Automatic annotation (TrEMBL):
Domain of life: Bacteria
InterPro entries: LysR-type_TF_proteobact-type (IPR058163), LysR_HTH_N (IPR000847), LysR_subst-bd (IPR005119), WH-like_DNA-bd_sf (IPR036388), WH_DNA-bd_sf (IPR036390)
Protein keywords: DNA-binding, Transcription, Transcription regulation
Domain HTH lysR-type: residue ranges: 20-66
Protein name per its UniProtKB record: LysR family transcriptional regulator
Recorded GO MF terms: DNA-binding transcription factor activity; sequence-specific DNA binding
GO biological process, one term: DNA-templated transcription
Source organism per UniProt: Acidovorax kalamii
Family (UniProt): Belongs to the LysR transcriptional regulatory family.
């Protein structure tokens, strides 16, 4: 069988390479990709032959990527995003609103706010399929990691369509059972005597929050997690005092906001998509639905919530 040249390498070879890079073994990549282990092995061998490179070395821990394999990763990943975007675009052709649209949002927004909006959207357009990718990392719309993003910071790239949908208010909250047992702090200084819930790793958010909330430092947290959902669950379970979206806290009557005069913050919220998707029915209708729903959530509902012309 003729081996592919570097100029004609099929996407399936890079797909297997990314699978092994992610899973650390041929068997793991095969399971993740839904193919056989020998197939993945042949793909890796063919790719190494075509490129003239060794991509993986065997060890007791599995297959370890070489320096060349790591250097190729961002380029292959960009191909992966483009291939997925191409498939989504192709799926949208036909009568009506149909096809696949990929939406990215933070954990809390994706789990606590978007599900009813997306359920209503899909009920109106049964031919529409929504991929919901949850990550606190800002995904790159210019490189098609997603079609539409909910961002808590103003986008700067000129090639994006962005609609501001208001601000998400943040405040300190605790469960009524915790406050009944431990007392309610009367000042920021009192937080030193309470169990605080916060992040494990230092983040830009913590550094910004510390300006308005000096006690908010890693050493002060009795319960630490880098998952916003875990922090919210800990607050709801009575684990201590943590930062929570004010609107979300209202949904749980037992959550009490503490020190509202001493600490309040807000996250500017935007719905964003690439301008090339302006005329795509699947993306335009999803964008409009998210804008309308988030305007309601932030209390900034107004006339004319469609895509910017």
């Amino acid at each position: 069988m003729t081996q592919p040249t570097a100029e004609s390498i099929g996407w399936e070879l890079y797909r297997s390479y990314l699978g092994v890079l992610s899973e650390g073994s041929l068997s793991g990549a095969a399971r993740a990709l839904g193919v056989t282990q020998p197939t993945v092995g042949r793909h890796i061998a063919a790719l190494e032959h075509a490129l003239g490179l060794t991509l993986f070395t065997r060890s007791q821990q599995g297959l370890l990527p070489t320096e060349a394999a790591l250097e190729l990763h961002p380029y292959a990943q960009a191909m992966q995003h483009s291939a997925a975007a191409l498939a989504r675009a192709a799926s949208g052709h036909g009568e009506g609103v149909r096809g696949t649209v990929r939406v990215t949002a933070s954990e809390v927004i994706g789990v606590e706010v978007l599900p009813p909006l997306l359920a209503q959207l899909q009920a109106r357009h049964p031919g529409l399929t929504v991929e919901l990718a949850l990550s606190n990392r800002v995904q790159d719309l210019l490189h098609r990691e997603a079609d539409i993003a909910i961002r808590m910071t103003e986008p700067r790239q000129e090639a994006l369509i962005a609609r501001r949908v208001g601000v998400v208010a943040l405040g300190l909250h605790a469960h009524a059972s915790y406050l009944q047992a431990q007392g309610t702090p009367a000042s920021l200084a009192d937080l030193a005597h309470h169990r605080l819930i916060g992040f494990d790793l230092e983040t830009p958010f913590i550094r910004a929050a510390r300006k308005a909330l000096p006690p908010w430092r890693r050493e002060a947290f009795a319960l630490r997690s880098d998952s916003d959902l875990a922090q919210l669950a800990l607050i709801r379970a009575g684990g201590g005092i943590g930062i929570c979206q004010v609107e979300l806290a209202r949904r749980t009557p037992q959550l009490v906001r503490v020190l509202p005069q001493q600490f309040n913050a807000a996250l500017d919220t935007w719905v964003v998509m690439h301008e090339d998707l302006r005329n795509s029915p699947r993306c335009r209708h999803t964008f409009d639905a998210l804008v309308a729903g988030l305007l309601q959530y932030t209390g900034l509902a107004e006339e004319g919530v469609g895509v910017v012309a």
